[in-house]
């Protein structure tokens, strides 16, 4: 969709979903690119909560972002305006007098809230959930540009999202460190990494960190096959192994490991699969086993150079898109350039690991077991 451009825009930015290294770099690029055009820039606190729950923000749910606000934030993890992965405005959990909880659409309140603040256009940074919300707001007449973010790399329509490279780099370093202790103690070390529905982090870090088995959501595993891999290493005089497990991995006959089931306005919380795999491998191989859960460590820290640059490029490209009069599109990496894809296209399907991809073939050629 292309809209007439206003010469001086008042824009807002929000960050939604789980945080990812690079969010602050996007914010800085958006703010500086906007200010350098003579525009004004505001930040909505904690996803859309700054508009939906203004009473929770005595110092303002929508705050001005200035050159000073974004000074020095490029290398910082987190997001200076906050984020949330609870309370999707499309399906907002609401308690009824009889105690039941229903989900209701609160996007009209966001449309009105943006109008009250005189916001001409919104830049929404987030994963699939945030892009779905952005797409709904576009249909309601809000001028929106999406910026893709997720450490899980499961967002379609872009070759890469920022945060993923940082998460993989950290996981690889952790796996490297576990090799030496695994070998010294002749143990099996199981490393659980994030990746709810897609195994990108487990696969890329597992291959780079030379793990011996990698279990991903895309391939339900047979624990006996993983145990056989560990035993064959033993037979070759290597009585230790490193196994990487994505939190969304599941056995062939079984389901994912849940910490908490899905609730209104909130996805299910996964966790515990590393523990389960370790227990079963110890029983099947007789080898002492330990588990390390990397969890939220993967979302923290300073973004890698790749992620910083990508985040800065995405932020600046989002502002250029507004200047060009675009709306309803997501900035996407299409090397060597960035392009704009319709939000509907970006949210149509989840990007999971293709089983015939080059990285999968590489892993198999290297002898890594997927438990299949
Ligand atoms: N701007 C927002 N305001 C409120 N809630 C949001 C916002 N953006 C996203 N959410 C909520 O967070 C959930 C996850 O968001 P999203 O898919 O954008 O992030 P993600 O990077 O994929 O991370 P996650 O693992 O949390 O899904 C959404 O389904 C929605 O419930
Ligand atoms: O613990 P939280 O913040 O709800 O988020 C956990 C989820 O976030 C993600 O890291 C995506 O950011 C998923 O892999 C994970 O399941
Ligand atoms: Mg998501």
UniProtKB/TrEMBL annotation:
Q: Tell me which residues bind Mg(2+).
A: 128
Which residues hold ATP?
Answer: 18, 86-87, 127-130
Pathway, per record:
Carbohydrate degradation; glycolysis; D-glyceraldehyde 3-phosphate and glycerone phosphate from D-glucose: step 3/4
Which terms in the GO cellular component ontology are assigned?
6-phosphofructokinase complex
Keyword Transmembrane applies: no
Q: Which Gene3D superfamilies match?
A: 3.40.50.450, Phosphofructokinase domain (3.40.50.460)
BP-aspect Gene Ontology terms: canonical glycolysis; fructose 1,6-bisphosphate metabolic process; fructose 6-phosphate metabolic process
Q: Which Pfam families match?
A: PFK
Q: Where is this site: Important for substrate specificity?
A: 129
Q: What does this protein do?
A: Catalyzes the phosphorylation of D-fructose 6-phosphate to fructose 1,6-bisphosphate by ATP, the first committing step of glycolysis.
Q: Which family does it belong to?
A: Belongs to the phosphofructokinase type A (PFKA) family. Mixed-substrate PFK group III subfamily.
* Assembly: Homodimer or homotetramer.
How is this protein named in the record?
ATP-dependent 6-phosphofructokinase
Q: Which gene encodes it?
A: pfkA
